[in-house]
Amino acid sequence: MSANGKPKFAMYWAASCGGCEIAVLNIGEKILDFDANFEVVFWPVAMDAKYKDVEAMPDQSILLTLWNGGIRNKENEEIAHLLRRKSQILVAFGSCATEGCIPGLANFSSTEEIFHAAYDSISSENPEKLRPQYRTQMPEGEISIPEFYPTLRTLDQVVKVDYYMPGCPPESHQIASVIDLVIQVLQGKATLPPAGSVIGAGISTVCDDCPRQRNVKLVKKFTRIQALQNPDPTLCLLEQGVPCNGPATRQGCGALCPQAGAQCIGCYGPAEGVIDYGARLISAFASVIDSTDPDEIEAILDGIPDPAGQFYRFNLAGSLLRAGMKSWSR
Amino acid sequence: MTENFEPVIIGFTCNWCSYRAADLAGTARIKYPPNVRLIRMMCSGRLDPSFVMKAFSEGADGVLITGCHPGECHYLEQNYKALRRFLLMRRTLAQFGIEPGRVKLVWASAAEGVRLANEISKIVEEVRALGPLNWPKWKDNGVHKIALHELEEV
Ligand code: SF4
Ligand code: SF4
Ligand code: FES
Prior knowledge:
The structure holds two protein chains of two kinds.
Chain A: E1 8-13, H1 19-25, H2 30-37, E2 39-42, H3 51-56, E3 62-68, E4 71-73, H4 74-86, E5 87-93, H5 95-99, H6 101-104, H7 111-119, E6 135-138, E7 141-144, E8 148-153, E9 163-165, H8 172-186, H9 206-209, H10 256-259, H11 277-286, H12 294-301, H13 307-312, H14 325-328
Parallel strand pairs in A: 1-2, 1-3, 3-5, 5-9
Antiparallel strand pairs in A: 4-8, 6-7
Chain B: E1 9-14, H1 18-27, E2 36-41, H2 49-57, E3 62-67, H3 78-96, E4 103-107, H4 113-130
Parallel strand pairs in B: 1-2, 1-3, 3-4
Helix pairs in contact in B: 1-4
FE2/S2 (inorganic) cluster is lined by residues 14, 16-17, 43-45, 67-68, 73-75, 78-79 of chain B.
C-alpha cells in the first residue's frame, strides 16, 4: 500500500502498437472507479516516470501490472524481469504479450530483413543508409542502445505470468469487468481466478458467438471477402469460401467481425485447449474443401496465398514452432 | 558433418493398414532403415497437424504420414481428410523454412510391406540429403538459447 493507502498499479508497453493503452483508456467512466481504487506508480504512456524509480520500489510493492507487448530487445527483457520482481500480479495484457501478435510475425524474417524494412525500404527516408549502432563514442563517453534479439518472445517465455488477457486489443468492456473483479477482490467480495488463467474472455470459439448459419457446406474455392459474388449475410463465411479464423479463435469479442461482414482474423488467440492455433485452422480449413483429388485440392488451396500469415497472424511467437528458420538459422 | 548424419523420422501409421504393413515387413524380414520411429493411430484422419509441428519442434528431421489407399479407409473418408490437411500443412511448413521433402504422405495397405519399406528408405535418403533440421530447443524463463546476432557484423 502506498502513502495514501491505495494499492499500486503499473502498465508497461514493450514491442506493441499502443492500441492496448487506448483500449484501457476507452473503458469510459470506469476509469474513475479505477482511479479511486489504485495509485498509478508507473505507466510510461500516461505519466512521466523513470526506470530507476521502479528499481527503488520494494519488491512486490506493485499490486497489479498490466504488461502489453512482446519481448523484442534487451530493454524489454530487463524491464520484464524488473516488473516481475516488483509486482504481485503480472498480467500478460493483449495479443502481443500473450502470443506475439503482429510484431511476432517478424519471426518469419531474418534480422537483416527486419532492419532493411525499417531503414532502407520505401517507407523510410534514409538516403545515407544509416543503421543504428549498439555503441557509439561521444565526447562525453560511450552511449549504447539495447540489443535487438533475433526472435520476438511472448512475456511468459521470459518471466512467470499470473494471468493472460487476450485480444488485439482486449475489448474495453472486458477490461472494465476485469478491473471490477480486481476491485471486488480488494474489497473481499470476490476471489481471484486460479493462477495461469485466461481472463477477460471465454473458453470456446468465436464461431460459438457468431450468429451466422453453419450447414456443413463444402467449398470448391477460397476467395477474398472483397471478391465474393453475392455474399450471404446469414451464412457462415468459411462455408462461402472466405478464410475465417473463427473455428480456432477464443471467444471474447462477441464475434464482432463476422457480424460486420468481415472474416475473423484471430485477434483473440487460441481457444481453450488449442495446442497450436495454426494447426487447428489447417484442420478446420481442410475439412471444408470439397475434393478428394490431390491436383484439385492444390488448386483450391491456391485461394489461400499466404497460409502461414493466415494461420499465424497473431500467434506465431506463441506457436509450437515459434519462428521461421530465417530468423534463427545461421 | 552430413556424412554421419542419421535423420530422425517420425512415422504416423494407421492401425488397419500401414501399421500392419510395417509389421509384415518385420515378420517377412524385409530390411528398412532404423531411422523411422513409428507411432500407431487408429486412422490417418486422427493426424492432428499439431503432431507434426510438435515432431519438428522437438527434433525430428522428417515426418512420414501413412494411411489406407483412397477408398479403403475403415472410417470411410478420413484418409481424404488427411490428404487435404497434409497438402495445406506442407505449404504452411514451407513458409517456416521446412522443405516439402521433409514431410510425406504415403498410402500402404496391410499387404504392402515391401512398398512401405521402400517408401521409408526413400524418405530417409531424401532427408539425409537435406541435412539436419536442427529446430531450436526454445528455452523459457531465461536467456535466449540461440546466440544473439552481433548486429554490427551484419
Ligand atoms: S467460421 Fe467465421 S463466419 Fe463461420 S461461424 Fe465461425 S466465426 Fe462465424
Ligand atoms: S471476430 Fe476475430 S478478429 Fe474480429 S475482434 Fe473477434 S477475435 Fe478479433
Ligand atoms: S483407417 Fe487407415 S486411413 Fe483411415
